Amino acid sequence: MTYNNGNSVKSKKMSRELLAGAHARLDDLIKFLEPYLLSLYMPGRRNKEKSETAIMEFLELSHEMAEGNPEWFPIFSKRASYEEKFFLNRELYLLLEKMEILHAAIHDMKTLFGSDVMESSMIFYNNVKTAARRDLPGARAIYDELKAVFPTKKK
């Protein structure tokens, strides 16, 4: 749990074991759902990934350079705190990356299936609408109820 007290962000310690367990559980969930997941290509999603990846590459290289050149590490900064925050940031980035893959795949499936269901629902709706116009028994009540919640574009 993280909170901001106005000056700095405090966090309960997250052990390497805890983070490794989180990664393992996400990997298991992705493998479990993988045979059923579909994915769409979305350019906006790729652009976001590229910028986040570029930032992470900078942080990784900066960390590597700081380890290899400790004489350049600022005296006023606490090295141990930097190491801890770097590790936590990297692990959270990797967890988030896995969660975003899973989220995107589930969202894409919902979009694809939702489109199919909408198409079938529209055929049903139009059928009922036609039946209501012809005063067929029971059609008006169904049509009125569906019409009340019909998704329309707001002007």
Report on this model:
- This protein has 155 residues and is mainly α.
- It has helices at 16-33, 43-68, 79-133, 139-149; strands at 2-4, 9-11.
- A two-stranded antiparallel sheet has the order 1-2.
- A hairpin with a 4-residue loop joins β1 (2-4) and β2 (9-11).
- α2 (43-68) runs antiparallel to α3.
- The chain is elongated and about 85 Å long.
- The two termini are 43 Å apart.
- The model is unreliable at 1-5 (pLDDT under 50).
Following the backbone from N to C, one meets helices and strands in this order, namely EEHHHH
Mean pLDDT: 84
**Overall outline:** elongated
Gap between N and C termini: 43 Å
Output the radius of gyration.
Answer: 26 Å
Class from helix and strand fractions:
mainly alpha
Number of strands: 2
Strand order of the largest sheet: 1-2
Poorly predicted spans: 1-5
Biggest sheet descriptor: 2 strands, antiparallel
Helix content: over 70%
Work out the strand percent: under 5%
Number of continuous helical runs: 4
